[in-house]
UniProtKB/TrEMBL annotation:
Gene3D superfamilies in the cross-refs: 3.30.530.20
Organism from which the protein derives: Cicer arietinum
Keyword Metal-binding included in the entry's annotation: no
Biological processes, Gene Ontology terms: abscisic acid-activated signaling pathway; defense response
PANTHER family: OS08G0374000 PROTEIN-RELATED, STRESS-INDUCED PROTEIN SAM22
Protein name, per record: Protein LlR18B-like isoform X2
Keywords: Pathogenesis-related protein, Plant defense
Annotated transmembrane regions: none
GO molecular function, one term: protein phosphatase inhibitor activity
């Protein structure tokens, strides 16, 4: 039976809101290729970077990392609200028999306490059937695939 498991995370960054939003929405074309320690190349399968764009991100082999590639779909870009949404829809470690997609929605807000911003990230794991997966296992899978890339984008933007 299909199910949805969701959670939210708030991340504080020292990156100005406009700069981080620009780098998040342009990640496939400008930022991801700079992650040369983990990314071999990015292939655009469909689209021009806007909603509906499909990207195949091919990773370099690394110890402890099973995934060789991940397919992302851009779901939403809202300039006025500083929202960006994408979904993991395929890849070598993406079990399509159990998972429909993993959706990430990022909303950036000003941080009055510093020059940076607050990233509110909501994650939805859309499963085809729960089987024997605990909430903790689902959280672990979504954290590994989504936040790993987001953290690298923040690190590059801070440089």
């Amino acid at each position: 039976m299909a199910f949805v498991h969701s959670f939210q995370v708030e991340r504080l960054t020292f990156v100005p809101l406009d700069k981080l939003f620009r780098d998040i929405k342009r990640n496939a074309f400008h930022v991801i290729p700079k992650l040369d320690q983990i990314i071999l190349r990015v292939q655009t399968l469909q689209g021009d970077g806007g909603p509906g764009t499909l990207l195949n991100i091919i990773k370099k082999p690394q110890e402890g990392i099973i995934s060789k590639n991940v397919v992302l779909k851009v779901d939403e870009i809202d300039e006025a609200e500083k929202k960006y949404g994408y979904s993991v829809v395929g890849g070598t470690d993406f079990d399509e028999t159990m998972t429909e997609r993993i959706s990430y929605k990022i909303k950036l807000e000003e941080n009055d306490d510093c020059d940076g911003c607050i990233a509110n990230i909501s994650v939805e794991f859309h499963g085809r059937e729960r089987r024997n997966m605990s909430d903790e296992q689902i959280d672990e899978q979504t954290n590994v695939q989504g936040f790993y890339l987001f953290d690298h984008i923040i690190n590059l933007t801070e440089e």
